């Protein structure tokens, strides 16, 4: 597992320092922020990481911060930590798509498990973003052809279905392989499945 | 006021005493007068009877003399003289006895004494004619001008001309014997309205002119001698009022009144002390009740406070846990020992922080008696601010602290003062919840240095930018159980007032310049105590 980048936002300095130190002993790099506004000003889409947010903070709560991030298209996994085992807050957090909801004080193992899960979730998120990015380069026709390839159709069948020649289909496939950086059908399938747009199709 | 009451009490007391004595004097005087009247009457009747008897004797004498005169012609002088002599010896009041002859010729009556035991002065004008005009056998009295205390009784023996008549002279002063006459009375015997004999009372002291003297007056039962006996008893003050008895009563009544007054005062005092005891009991109960309420309010407030404290407490615990777990890992060989040191250092700090919080909470909820100590105002304000800040921030309310009294001290129970301040800030926050726009609570501490006639004071002003307090509500703010909150008990501010009064301070409601509410706590500055303590 590659070391995950972690962003910690908590208004209490001793808490920030403690968690940063603990996670630091596990070789994780933790960037700490005293308030959501500073984090928002600092956050960089190019440096993805897991978010550990305190639910109750001055001015902007952890949940509001998460929403603001989603609005900016950042949907990195969020671990919410809170001093209150408030059921309502917990429900709202999960509804909003929070990955985990931990109550303070947070035990080492629980936090590590959550971070591990978040790491996997982040990978998926990144994969999805990558797939979306790659598939976005295809033309509409190429995308159509790709979908049929993924369904296991042969070039002839596709050509018949689209009422074009098999050569044309082959040319489409060559372009697709070039754009996606692979000619493996298995890879094609993985990419289309990672794309949230494909899920609805 | 008290002196006036005492003077009034004395006046009433004197009036009652004087009234009692006046009643006693009136009653005893009346009794004395009544008794004197009865005495006068009984003595009068007794004297009347004696005089009547004596007067009747005169008639009998006349009758017997006339009988003797008529025995023979000329009358038997020896017998008459003898009878007369006897009579005069027995009855010294008979001053003279005469037998006279009355002759009428040409309208004038001449009188000639025939025999006389003691000559009666018969030579005054009119007597002869009057005697002659008498019906024989019917005696009649005449005044005797030469001797004003004597009177004459005459009786004609026959109707012939010349006629014989018997006259006796009576000394009226001897009609009453000294032993029979009461010494205390004026006694008067009158004939035809003219006084014959008068005896003055032997009086001690002056008669009272305004007091009608008891009087007895009665005509003697005798047709021949129409005398009237009059007894008048003049009464002196000493007679109707016994000075010893009066003084004795005055003293006794004074004593009795004093005793009564004392008893009444005692009873009043007893009742008053009973009342005071009852009030004290009530006050004690009220105080107990208040203390219980204060406890209840504290416990109630605890509910609200709990979330704030829990939030605060989880912070050090979170840090502690993570630091400890980090330290455990750092303790393994090959780790950076400086980091371990740092982690443990942080642990100590965080454990202390948590302990402080717990202590504050314990103090807050424990129902302990107030412990006034020298406390820095700024510390109280900071502590409360620390407690409420998280909650206020969550609610989007800014808390501003402002002080121009650094180092100001008060002598108060810091927990109670924190409670008061916490209460005020909570109220302010509640009032801000429903409002739009700026939400700020300001706690401003101002020192008011000692001036002439006033000790130094510290003022803590808690104001908000909320809707403020309507004037009619402001008047009733500190009443127990008065509340404008739907689920409020109405005890918060009343408790605040009680707690402040306990340490010599006061609380007042005002309007903030922004139109919001402002509460002003005023406490005596404990500068002097602080200097003494140093």
Automatic annotation (TrEMBL), chain A:
> Which keywords fit this entry according to its UniProt record?
DNA-binding, Phosphoprotein, Transcription, Transcription regulation
Per the record, residues carrying 4-aspartylphosphate are 54
Which Pfam families does its entry note?
Answer: GerE (PF00196), Response_reg (PF00072)
Q: Which GO terms describe its molecular function?
A: DNA binding
Q: Does the keyword Signal apply?
A: no
TM region positions: none
Q: Give a yes or no for keyword Transcription in this entry.
A: yes
Its Gene Ontology biological processes? Answer: phosphorelay signal transduction system; regulation of DNA-templated transcription
Q: Which residues form the Response regulatory domain?
A: 5-119
Q: What is this protein called?
A: DNA-binding response regulator
The taxonomic lineage of its organism, from the top, reads: Bacteria, Pseudomonadati, Pseudomonadota, Alphaproteobacteria, Hyphomicrobiales
UniProtKB/TrEMBL annotation, chain B:
**Enzyme Commission (EC) number:** 2.7.13.3
Q: Which residues form the Histidine kinase domain?
A: 308-527
Identify a single GO molecular function assigned to this protein: phosphorelay sensor kinase activity
Could you tell me the keywords of this UniProt record? Kinase, Phosphoprotein, Transferase
Question: Does the keyword field hold Phosphoprotein?
Answer: yes
Q: According to its UniProt record, which reaction does this protein catalyse?
A: ATP + protein L-histidine = ADP + protein N-phospho-L-histidine
Name of the molecule in the record: histidine kinase
Where does this protein come from, organism-wise? Azorhizobium oxalatiphilum
Q: What does the organism's lineage look like at the top? A: Bacteria, Pseudomonadati, Pseudomonadota, Alphaproteobacteria, Hyphomicrobiales
